[in-house]
Amino acid sequence: MTEAEFTVRRARPDRPGPPDVEQLEAQTRALRAVDYTAGGGMCRDAVLVRIHRGHELLGAATDAVRTRLFSAVADLHNLAAWTSFDSGHSGAAHHHLDLALALAEHGGNDELAANIRYRRGRIHLHHGAADEALAQFQHGRLAARRCGSGLAASILSANQAWAYAGKGDEQLALALLGRAADEFEAAGPADPPDWARFFTETDVAAMTGTVRTELAQRGRPRHARTAIAALTEAVARYGPEMARSRAFCLAMLAHAHLIDGDLERGARIGTEAVDAAEMLKSVRTKDRLRPLKLEAEKHLGHPAVRTLAEHITAYILSPTHV
Question: Which pLDDT tens digit goes with each residue over 103-123?
């Protein structure tokens, strides 16, 4: 792929400088914050507008800022993909990830390439394609190794663990979960790039709970107790700036409680999860509540759990405007 394919044909008369790139990066940070807080449907259109501006800048850029611009525009496509995915537009998400990866690789940014691979893998994982997800995570690990990013490696290991848990491979899932924790600790307190800033100690706990819940619902209920501890920690730490992640964790926490036999608490937390999801412009929240619905339907003799199952059903069937 040539450089011309990343640029617009009509160059701007003015040449962009570092302040233009910094402004674009700041806008991406702000829009990513909206995505975390309110869901991809709240900011997807605004991201697409900034992409047009980014390509205009790239078309007029000199060598002095071109490399940084490649990364800035790549991350805009990366964010466009994530907000598209969250809004239920998986085809558009893959299209933006194709462009993001090409731009990141053209600009020599392996750390961003690793993140793009992680996000593509997550889309596959969301749709039940664990093997395709694992292939993307492995490509991401190679990129993380090239740039020496321990944080990127930790993100990928945690998500490989989730994929293997989904396949029912307990041994590999737990081994990769342990490796993710070790890589995160070894990465230290360095200032991460914006696209990886979400992965904190709280997210490590959330991923621990996610993997353990996945194993628990696949015939290994003993993992539910560990999942409950990790997810309770994550829910307590997530603030309003990570509202979507907190909603996801609440759903899994409720699921783990139901598996563990605490139906009253599972119903209460599950109701809180639905209430949190209803505040977001995110189609993905409905998909993430489906496993909880299936678990709740195993306990319809319990009034509170039956009400929860009905609540989730009503939410899933409600129109989502994103």
Answer: 999 999 999 999 999 999 999
Residue 233 · residue 205 · CB < 8 Å: yes
Q: Give the Å distances, CA to CA, from 88 to 31, 217, 284, 321.
A: 18, 25, 7, 10
pTM above 0.90, yes or no: yes
At the top level of CATH, the class of 200-322 is mainly alpha
Domains 109-197 and 200-322 share a fold: yes
Percent of the chain with pLDDT over 90: 90
> What does the pLDDT read at residue 126?
97
d(CA 188, CA 275): 36
Yes or no: is domain 109-197 CATH 1.10.10? Answer: no
CA angle (165 as vertex; 163, 169 as ends), nearest 5: 110
What angle (nearest 5°) sits at the alpha carbon of residue 302, between those of residues 299 and 305?
Answer: 70
What are the structural domain ranges in the chain?
Answer: 1-107, 109-197, 200-322
Which amino acid is present at 269? Answer: I
Q: For the residues of 293-320, what is the DSSP string, one character each?
A: HHHHGGGTTSHHHHHHHHHHHHHHHS--
How much is the pLDDT for 13? 42
The residue to which tokens 């360095």 are assigned: 190
269 Cβ contact partners less than 8 Å away, ≥ 6 residues apart: 250, 253, 254, 257
Rounded Cα gap, residues 49 and 81, in angstroms = 14
Per-residue pLDDT, 12: 45
